[in-house]
Fold this protein.
Amino acid sequence: MHETYFRRLVDNNHLVHAYAFTGINTAEKEKTTDYLLALLACQNKTSEGEACGECDICHRIREGNFPDVLYVEPDGRSVRVDQIRELKQWVATTPVETTFKLAVIQQAELMNTSASNALLTVLEEPVDHVYMILWVNNQANLLPTIQSRVQMVSFDEGDYKQKQQLFVEQGYSSAHAFVLSHLPTENVGLLTATYPPGDFDHWLRDYHYYYQLLVQGEMQSFVTVETHLKKHLKPVPVSLLGIDYLLFINYHLLLRVTSDSNAETPSMYESFFNNLIKHKNPSISLLLDINQYLIQAKQYIQANVSPQLALEQLTINICK
Ligand SMILES: [Zn+2]
């Protein structure tokens, strides 16, 4: 679906240096990346500007045997800072076969803070012939500092507004529909089955309460996991959506704190954020820590740690 878009950009030399392909459709991200790579590399393009698919370079791209592309894969559960340093060295060398280099970071949300910061130094000094693509499931999982330096290309089905409308038609308020439409699609059906329109409010309120205590650094938030969140932590995919939601709020608060304006703040969070800022004035580094520990909690849960334990550990890390 993005192929015409990229062909036009390449035709007109309008490709920017860094893209984030967002959404859960990994196959589509892969396909578009290969398409773009062939488009840049093929020396024998058709009159429509498509890669020929038949030359030596096109063949070797298909076989995964092409030297001017680098794929960075997570090492275990994270993308480490030394992997980004290697990437940095790689992009500094001259292309072997073509006139460009393309680096792809798979699951860029698994970069820890130091890896993100190392990548930032690469993004801040773009090199003419070097392109980067970050694959990320959820835009909210990328640090705002990185987001502001990459062009987002969404691989989510439909757009948010359309999804929001569907939830409104099911009886959710527009604020609740807004939240649901921004959570990863795959498990939202499970969440709305568990929390129909009248109940969804409880889910939101409990997570807001917990997040507020977290930002205020209050150890009381530890107890809140048991008293408020525990009932929302089953089944596991619903607990993961809870953490995705915390990431979503945290992302918007980070944007708010880093931009000094509330222009981008969804209206449902305005007074919530104003109160947090008035009473606590959260630092950027605190919010970045929260971001990192939330992603870590998700990884633990995916590795079969109990959601309650993962959240308690996160609380200790933030509030200790
Ligand atoms: Zn070709």
Observations:
- The CA atoms of residues 219 and 319 lie 6 Å apart.
- Residues 42, 44, 51-52, 54-55, 57-58 surround zinc ion (CB under 6 Å).
